[in-house]
Amino acid sequence: GENVEQHPSTLSVQEGDSAVIKCTYSDSASNYFPWYKQELGKRPQLIIDIRSNVGEKKDQRIAVTLNKTAKHFSLHITETQPEDSAVYFCAASLEAAGNKLTFGGGTRVLVKP
Amino acid sequence: SAVISQKPSRDICQRGTSLTIQCQVDSQVTMMFWYRQQPGQSLTLIATANQGSEATYESGFVIDKFPISRPNLTFSTLTVSNMSPEDSSIYLCSGGLAGGRETQYFGPGTRLLVL
Fold first, then answer.
1. How far A113 CA sits from the closest chain B CA (Å)?
2. Are B48 and A100 within 8 A, CB to CB?
């Protein structure tokens, strides 16, 4: 089955700096890659997603890039703000496998004011 | 996006007992899933809830321990049976909308503590 590795496990950045989280996946057939943000005690919230026919997607301060050949994808947060502090999870899924999500281990991001 | 609710939001249970968690979606979804999130950990898929048929379980999870029902497109239940302290976790359901079915939205979770 699919395996998703996520790095780093923790990330501390100064407010205003950029944060980058990287994930690799094992199943080359996976075709959908969402990113979730989870604040303490809250549900995971979808913040951005990308499909395998697209190399990059941007939404305001958040962007995701996908390299299908290398089987890795990354989340980029620019101009970080204290409210970006949370745990971020990447995931991968395959339509043929019923769209079930396989999650990375998570990255705890701390934005220092 | 879909609005997904769960109940109970939290519970404290004695070992050996069972708890049924309910998940309700405000619009029709093609896929519904149940995940477990142990403290400080990532999300692990327990099973896919199939409408009108038996759920599809992931490796390490069995129907006797986690029976699941999905009588219609908007409702599902997960039972945690014969609980032990190792079952203490957050249990989350998720649903994918019929139109954009890859996209999944999560319920608020049920925080379970087994004593």
1. 24
2. yes
Q: Are A88 and A62 in contact (CB under 8 A)?
A: no
Chain B residues whose CB is inside 8 A of the A32 CB are 102
CB proximity A95 to B under 8 Å = yes
Query: What's the residue count for chain B?
Result: 115
H/E/C letters for each residue in chain A? CCCEEEECCEEEEECCCCEEEEEEECCCCCCEEEEEEECCCCCCEEEEEEECCCCEEEECCEEEEEECCCCEEEEEECCCCHHHCEEEEEEEECHHHCCCCEECCCEEEEEEC
Where chain B has pLDDT below 70, the residues are 1, 97-101
Q: What pLDDT score was predicted for residue B98?
A: 54
